[in-house]
């Protein structure tokens, strides 16, 4: 049974499944993260967030699947009785996009709901996350990638209730350079948007965790929706929640009731590991208490 420190993983996502009291850990698990043919996604499960059973093959592409590389950042949600995976894929012929897959259980196997991503065909997109509005409408929040637009954008789009396709046009929520804590890379014009995850505070305020580069490295910042919906408008906290060498965060509730942040750190390969950090909510914001 591997220990957390033994598992190389980027973009970790934890599903705390109440039905069997297991934590399920998904993420970018291919060894060749950036190039070459992709294998799929693995999943691990644990009772204590330290010792993990697996890996189990959550997704393996069947013959004819449109993508062959960059299988990134799977997120899994229990929604209307089934389990849905939002994940990014790419091929030489088609732009990167977020596709929705489904399974009857958290171990999979996950199968695509449709033959193509739900994100716009002509956009380079990644890191789609599911957000359910208070009226029950499902939305995807995702990144319009800096590789195409330089100043990375965060966007949102409504989905059909069955999550099979878009139910409206994409709306740009903000650009990475609008946050006061982000810094430009490469030639001074490139700003990264990565890893959105939406969380509603007990006060009702809607926050978004997202990642970019800070002056200390890969980081997680907080944006706030003035309307309390995915459409915002969004404002940015002046300083990141976690400022250095780790990111692509999400929040989950441990079985003991604690609010936990999952992220990967450090950011450099091949040393990426899942890091779990206890989060305290207070004074209208989130505070990281300790790492595990």
From TrEMBL:
<comment type="similarity">
    <text>Belongs to the glycosyl hydrolase 43 family.</text>
</comment>
<comment type="pathway">
    <text>Glycan metabolism; L-arabinan degradation.</text>
</comment>
<dbReference type="GO" id="GO:0016787">
    <property type="term" value="F:hydrolase activity"/>
</dbReference>
<dbReference type="InterPro" id="IPR023296">
    <property type="entry name" value="Glyco_hydro_beta-prop_sf"/>
</dbReference>
<dbReference type="InterPro" id="IPR050727">
    <property type="entry name" value="GH43_arabinanases"/>
</dbReference>
<dbReference type="Pfam" id="PF04616">
    <property type="entry name" value="Glyco_hydro_43"/>
</dbReference>
<dbReference type="InterPro" id="IPR006710">
    <property type="entry name" value="Glyco_hydro_43"/>
</dbReference>
<keyword id="KW-0378">Hydrolase</keyword>
<protein>
    <submittedName>
        <fullName>Glycoside hydrolase family 43 protein</fullName>
    </submittedName>
</protein>
<keyword id="KW-0326">Glycosidase</keyword>
